[in-house]
Amino acid sequence: MEAVLKNLRSTVELLAVAAQSGVVVQWDKQTLCRAFRWARYCEHVFSRFQDNPAVRDIMEKQLQLTNQSLRAALPRHSEVSFSDLSRCQHLLLVGLLNNPELPSSIMKILFDTPSPVNTNDEGFEDVTGLCSRIIHCKSACKVLGPLTDGADAEVQGAMLRERLGALLAQGSEPCRTEHFLESVLQGCAGAEEHFCLLIAAALLTPKNSETAAQDFLLDWLQKKHSMLQHMCSVLSDTILMDLAREHLKFRDAYYGLLKKWASDMEYSINDRTWVQSSTNPTVSFPKLTEHFLLLFKACPSVKENTEKELNDLKISDGDFDVRGLSVWGDLLSALN
Amino acid sequence: MSQLQSLIQLQETSEHLLNVQEMQFWLDKAVAWTQVDSPETQKDTCRHLSRLSVFLQQLVTHINNMSCSTETMKRLPFLGQFLGRLCWNPYVTADDTSRRWLFQCLWGLYSEHPSNPVERKANQWIRKIFCQLATDEDSVAAQAIMKHVDVPPKEYHLKVLKRMVTLLREDTGKTCTSLGNINQRCSCDNVLATSEACVPLVTCPEVAPLIGALLQRPTACVKSAVSENFLDALSSAYTSQGLSLDEQAVVSLWYHSLSSLEEAVLRLLESALTSTWSTPLKLEQHVAQSLLPKACAQHCSMFLVTNDIFRSTLKQAEGNDSVKSLIQAFTSCFLRELAMLQPQKRVPLKEFFPQSPQSLLVSLLTPPAEIPQKAWRHHLNWISGSLQRLTEEDEEGDRDGDSSGSTRLFEAWFLLVQCGHWVQVTVQLLVTSGPEDCGPLLWLLTFYHHPTNRGHHRALQLVHAKEVWDHLHSLFLALAHPLPVDRLQSLVTQLSPQPQQPQLSPLLILKLLVDFAVFFQQSLSISTEILQTVVDQSGLADEAVHVLHSLELELTKASCLSGDANRVHLRIKALQNTLTKKYGAWIPAEDQEPTCSRAGESAHGH
C-alpha cells in the first residue's frame, strides 16, 4: 500500500508539472510515454479500489496532502480527487495541451497519424496519434449523430444506470446515491431536455438487469415532481408509452401527474377551454387528452379504472353534463 | 535584375496565382459547408473529400516551400480562415487522409522560432485549435456524465460511436417493407444517407460492421442503393489497403462496383506477372488469398467479368506461360470454391461458361481425381477427338469466310487453358503410351501449345512432336552407360531457339522430357542424368524445376494413391534436388527438401 500511495503522489505531482511548469520544455517522446504510462497506472488503481471504501479513504487522504503541498508550490494547481483518477490520462493531456511551454515536437507526436499497430513491445498503447484518434472518434460521432436519434443519450443512460447499480450494490446510503443523481442533473443545467432522454434511456435498456438502479431512479422521479413533469411534457409518445408499459411505478406516477394537471386547470370563459395557470411548462387541454389516450394505448387495462375514477370525480363535482363545469366530465367526454 | 531572375519570378507569380484561384474555390466551399448544416452540404463535403485531401497535400508542399509563416500568410491571406473552418468540419476531421494533411498545413504555419508578433499570434492560435479539437466537449450532458460517472472522454466517445454503428447496422439490416411501392416509406430510406455519411469513415475499424451491412444489404427496392461516393471511397481505400472489411463485405463491394472488381482482377494479373512465384502452389495460394475465386463462385456475373479480362489478356499475350499459369490457378481455386458452396446456391456450370463449347464443358471441368485413372486415356482421346473435329470445322469455315468458327475454336482452347490439369495428365500418359496409341494425346498437347494453325503448320508441328516423342522414348529405353551423347545433343538443339519455322514449343518438349524422367520405367540415376545433362546444356534448369513443381502439385491434387504414387513422388523429389542443388538460389530455404538418400530412408520407414 505504501508503494501505491507513493506512486499516487508522484503521478499527481507529474500532472501538476505537466500542466504548469516549464520543465516540459525538456520532454521528449520517451518522457511523454512514461507520463502516460503513470497516468494509466492511476486509472488502474482507480478501477481496482473504487469499490473499496477503506482503501478509497486512505487514498483520498493521501491526495489531499499532495494537493496541499502542490498548492503551496503552484498556486494555480487544480486539485485531483480520487474519482479524477479515472480520467488521469485525459487530465494529463488537457494539462499538457494547455501548457504554453509544451514543445511543438511533443504536440506533433500527439497529433500525428496513429500507426496501425498501436501497441509497442511492452503491450502499452502508443501515445503517437493519441489526439488524432480522439478527434477521429469525436468527428465520426458527429457525422453519424444526425442519423441516429439518441445514441448518445442511450450510452449516457446506460453509464448512469451502471453507476447507480454499483453505488447501490456497495450499500451506500440513499442520500449519497441521490446526491450523485443531483450532481449529474446539475451538470446537465441547460440541457434538461437531454437529461430527460438520458433518464428514459436508463429506464428502458436493457431489460432484466440492474433493476435496483431502475427502481431507485423511479422512486427519485416520484419525489422529484418537477423532473417527472418535465419528462412527461418533453419525451416523445413512443418513449412515454414504452416507459408506461415497462414500469408500473412510472405508469402510476404518469397517471397521477395527468390527474394533477387536470385538477390544476381552470375554465377560461374567454377561450372557451380549460387552461393551466400554475404549472410550467403549461399543458393544453387537448394535449392532456392526448396523454390520457397514450396511457390507455400503452396499458389498455388502465382504461376501465381510469374512466371509473374520472366518473366518480365528475359526480363529486355535481355530475352535470354541461361543458366548462367539471374538468373531469369534459375529459371523459373528450376521451370517449 | 537578370533575365533568369525575372523569369523565375514570373513563374512563381503564375504558380502563386494558380494557387490563389484554387484556394478561392476551396475557401468558398469551406465557408458554404460551415454556414449551412444540411444533408446537401454534407453530401457536397463527402463528394469533395478526396479532391480536398489532394489539394491539402499540395498546400502542405506550398507552405513548406515558403521561407517563413509571415510570407505564407502574406501570400495566402485567407489560409488561416480556411484551415480553421476545415478544423471544425467533422466530415473533414473524420477522414484520415484529409485530417492528416490539414494538420500538416497547420504545422507548416507554426514557427519554431517566431520572429514577430504575427508569428507568435499564429502559434498561439494553432495551439489553441489543437487543444480545443482534442479536449472540447460540445454536450454538457456528456461532460456531466464523464465527470460524475468517471469515464474518460476517449472511452466515452468510442462507446457512443459503437452504439451508433450498432443502431445504424440494425436499421440497415431490416428488410425492405415498401413492397416495391416507391411512395411508401420503408427501411431503405436511410440507406443512401447512411452510406453517404460513411464516406469519410471507410477506413475506421469501428464503422466496418456498418459498412459491411450496407454493402450486403439486398437490393430489394430502388431506394436501397448505396451512394456512388461511398463505393468510390471504399474502392480507393481498398486499393491503398486502408480497409478493414471482412471477406464477405469485400465481395459485396466488388458486386456493387464494377470498377473496383476490375481493379482487383488487374492487380491480381499484375502481381502474377511481375513477381516470380517460386512454386505453382504459392501462386495458387496467392490467387486464393485475393478472394476473387470465392467471389466469382458466389456471383456468376463477377466470374464473367473476371474471365473476360483473362480472355483478352490471353489474346494479347498468346504464348505467355505466366498468364496461362495464372488462369489455371484461378480456375482451379474457383472450381474448389464452387464445390464448397451449398448446392442450392450453386449456379449451373454452363452459365459460368456461356461461350465455351458446351459439349466439352463437363469433360474438361471435371478434375482428374474424379475420374478413375484407368479411364483417363479414353477420356482424353475423346476430348482430343472433339477438339480435332472443331478445328477441322473451323478451318473449313475459314475457307468459306465465316469467322464465327475461329471464335469458337479460341473459346475451346481457352477452356483447355483453364483446365490445364488435363494437359498435365496428357503429358503423363504420353510417357506410358506406345507408338500406336500416342497420336490423339500428342495432337492435344500440340494444340495446347500451338492453338492457331498459323501458316498451316499444324501438320508439320505434329510431325515434330511425334519425332520428339520417338526420340525421348528410345533415349529412355537405353539401358546402360554411356549415354548416347549425340542423341542428348539433338534434344538440346531442339530446346534452343531455332531459326527455321515452325519451331515446336520448347516448353512442350521440356514437359515431355521431365515427365519421361519421372514416369518412365527407367532407373532414377539414368533418368536424372539424362534430364540434368539436357537442361544444363540448354540452360532450362529453372523451367524444369518449375515443371516438376507443377507436376507435384497436380499429382497431390489428383491424390493418385496407386502403389506407384510414392515412387513417383520420391522420383520427383530426387530430380528436384539434383536440379536445385546446382541452382540453389531458385528455391527459398524453407522449401529445401531432404537429400535423395534421406528421402530413400524415410520411404523405407513407411
TrEMBL record, chain A:
<dbReference type="Pfam" id="PF11107">
    <property type="entry name" value="FANCF"/>
</dbReference>
<dbReference type="GO" id="GO:0043240">
    <property type="term" value="C:Fanconi anaemia nuclear complex"/>
</dbReference>
<protein>
    <submittedName>
        <fullName>FA complementation group F</fullName>
    </submittedName>
</protein>
<dbReference type="InterPro" id="IPR038505">
    <property type="entry name" value="FANCF_C_sf"/>
</dbReference>
<dbReference type="InterPro" id="IPR035428">
    <property type="entry name" value="FANCF"/>
</dbReference>
<dbReference type="GO" id="GO:0036297">
    <property type="term" value="P:interstrand cross-link repair"/>
</dbReference>
TrEMBL record, chain B:
<dbReference type="InterPro" id="IPR000686">
    <property type="entry name" value="FANCC"/>
</dbReference>
<dbReference type="GO" id="GO:0036297">
    <property type="term" value="P:interstrand cross-link repair"/>
</dbReference>
<dbReference type="Pfam" id="PF02106">
    <property type="entry name" value="Fanconi_C"/>
</dbReference>
<protein>
    <submittedName>
        <fullName>FA complementation group C</fullName>
    </submittedName>
</protein>
<dbReference type="GO" id="GO:0043240">
    <property type="term" value="C:Fanconi anaemia nuclear complex"/>
</dbReference>
<dbReference type="GO" id="GO:0034599">
    <property type="term" value="P:cellular response to oxidative stress"/>
</dbReference>
<dbReference type="GO" id="GO:0006289">
    <property type="term" value="P:nucleotide-excision repair"/>
</dbReference>
